[in-house]
Amino acid sequence: MTEEIRVRFAPSPTGYLHIGGARTAIYNWLFARQHGGKLILRIEDTDAERSTEEMIKGILDGLEWLGIDWDEGPYYQSQFIAEHQEAARQLLASGHAYKCFCSKEELEAKRELARTRKEDYRYDGTCRKLSPEEIAEREAAGQPYVIRMKVPEGDGAVTFTDAVYGEISKRYRDIEDFVIVRANGQPLYLLSNVVDDARDRISHVIRGQDGLGNTPKQILLYNALGKKLPVFAHMSLTLDPKRAKISKRTHGELVAVHFYREHGFLPWALVNFLVLLGWSNPDSKEIFTYEELLEAFSFDGMNRANSIFNVNKNDPKFITDPKAINMNAHYIRTMPLEELEPYVRAELEKAGLWRDEFAGERREWFLRTVDLIRARYHLLTDFATLGRPYFSDEVEIEIEAKARKKNLDKFPGLREWLPELADRLEKLAEFTPERVEAEMRAFAAEVEVKPGVIINGVRTLITGQLAGPGLFEIVETLGRDLVTARLRRPF
Ligand code: GLU
């Protein structure tokens, strides 16, 4: 019987789902789905000070928005503290751990000595040598103690094969007798994490490379507790352009999943982008459907080198990595219109531009217009900002300064010509792109300017913009009434 694949996403609730966490969740999710396994969601909330319900909600909302579903949980690590303590008692009983009574002051003095000698400090194992009588005596005297792992002595090493980083070996002598339970009885994270993973029968631990350093210690814990080792697969980290780890503390909102949601990202575009931060495939393919990712994803393609996420908090115009924006633009441009429709609707609703007829008698017009304008859009929010002239029937649409300068101010004659052109368009028997174009060209010839002067002037006065789709398609979309009304407005 093949072993059941069980993976987990185990965020500490530090405020919200950030994109590094999202990437970890995505890899776990893909791996689970690929193998018909289970994804367990576990909130590692034992650091009670930092954990609030709101922070947990931020994580759950982020996952839901991305479309990452889990099969079990959320479990909360804090519910299992008694189990973690029980594991520590077991380790004491089996001789794999010991009570350490060294005081803070004693340890600090030893640390200081190592500093002056320019040596690495490692706990020297003083209490490892205590006799049972000495231990009993100190306990009877009410001396506080921590519990430490008894790391094997001698020339041996902990050796394991990481699915991404390959064989890793750490000598016993380089691992200190690490604390597993604090003096106040609180288990340390390293222990809790192992106990929880063992209880949840996690088969593969897929997590950030920053966990790699802890893995040898955790392996000692698994072995001492008699638990089966999972496969470890560490993912390279995502760094900012200055090579600092991306984090809430340094980058604030810019690395929060909800930031992308609010700024007009499609969830799948963000998933696709994040998957490529740290994973690649032999064909260098970049755009993936869910099914294609399930097919292609594997640990082999995971890069050992850290990836750069081009977040630039100093530039307010630059909301995020241009690659992420281009990925989003790709999906906006190419996804089935009916799938894009609800997202555009939501943006227009937020901006007060939505009208029910866009889903009713004008739905066909609405979809055609979305299709016409989306080719140049990068963010969903563009539908409400750049798309405003198309969805609003205001006549006094705002004119971009650049467009005004280039297409209107340079040709003062337009002040007379454009209202005249409006009269002509009003009288056209048929208001089709072909007829409008012929009329505009004829009009330009009459007033003796190049057709471009009229065409660009019209574009700017009816959309307020310098660039966009073909003018005659715009004219058709806006319709005769709006086009003529906008052409008659003073500017
Ligand atoms: N709670 C840890 C974190 O958020 C997860 C570590 C792990 O996956 O083992 O960094």
Describe the structure.
By secondary structure, the chain is mainly α. Among the domains are: 336-392; 394-491, Arc Repressor Mutant, subunit A (Orthogonal Bundle). The protein has helices at residues 19-34, 53-66, 81-93, 104-116, 132-140, 189-199, 215-225, 248-251, 257-262, 267-276, 290-296, 322-334, 337-350, 363-373, 382-385, 388-391, 401-409, 414-427, 433-447, 451-463, 471-478, 480-487; strands spanning 6-9, 38-43, 72-76, 97-100, 146-149, 157-162, 166-171, 179-181, 204-208, 231-235, 238-239, 307-308. It has a 3-stranded parallel sheet. A 3-stranded antiparallel sheet has the order 4-5-8. A two-stranded antiparallel sheet has the order 6-7. Helix 19 (433-447) packs across helix 21. It is elongated and about 110 Å long. The mean pLDDT is 94. The structure holds glutamic acid (GLU). Glutamic acid binds next to loops.
Specify the structural class: mainly alpha
**Bound compounds, please?**
glutamic acid
Average pLDDT over all residues: 94
CATH topology of the domain at 394-491: Arc Repressor Mutant, subunit A
The percent of residues in helical segments reads 40-55%
Q: Order of strands across the biggest sheet?
A: 1-2-3
Major sheet size, sense and barrel closure: 3 strands, parallel
